[in-house]
């Protein structure tokens, strides 16, 4: 007579990134989710290298355009070299804003394709999806700044302070750029189409970029425009980057830029995450 032995099934393994009993996901789980989503977004870029064209060519086109078209008019004919040291730090500020616009259109497009609905059905932190987007875009921004500086050095850019100050200028641009990305993510979650996001973004970008100290000293502008330039956060970032690279007085531009970055993130990030949860 044979005996039948029953084996107690093994308990299922619990992933360290799984939600806790109260539904919350710990820091370790959040980091794992962000890492996985960053890899997913990076693989998308690898499969679609054309999505890097703006990062690769925008710094070259803008630098050559403004140095050779406006450099002589602003600094005097034959003094484009001086203008390089003025405009390149300003363009670092501009890179962050232009790349941030792509985050909003990307989020909007992912919702249209149903990708975001799939993410929301998974047991992952909602913020991790959006943070992963920002991490990848910051990587794209670093590539754009590297190309911008390379073109700048070819045209005669000189670092009059130190390499550490240069990296501080890059880091400050990245911090401010990341805060702007939350604004455009919110636009991407609010507007119905990617075209609408681009249209609204351009309405914001154009006044901020050209009504700033990025391309020309505010002293050459009318008084009413100087007043706008003084409170424009892009002017503060451009002045801070310019001071760190050229050794000009920084004043309070660094702290004002950091304050803008913290304030924008503190206001827009919770709204964007809530909108991401509730979007239908």
UniProtKB/TrEMBL annotation:
Protein name: Transport permease protein
Family the UniProt entry places it in: Belongs to the ABC-2 integral membrane protein family.
Keywords, alphabetical: Antibiotic resistance, Cell membrane, Membrane, Transmembrane, Transmembrane helix, Transport
PANTHER family: NODULATION PROTEIN J
The keyword Cell membrane is assigned to this record: yes
Annotated compartments: Cell membrane; Membrane
InterPro entries: ABC2_TM, ABC2_TM_bact-type, ABC_2_transport, Nod_factor_ABC_transporter
ABC transmembrane type-2 domain boundaries: 50-279
Listed Low complexity bias regions: 1-19
Species, as recorded: Streptomyces polychromogenes
Regions that span the bilayer: 55-74, 86-108, 129-154, 166-189, 196-216, 254-273
PROSITE patterns tied to this protein: ABC_TM2 (PS51012)
Membrane disposition: Multi-pass membrane protein
Region (Disordered): 1-22
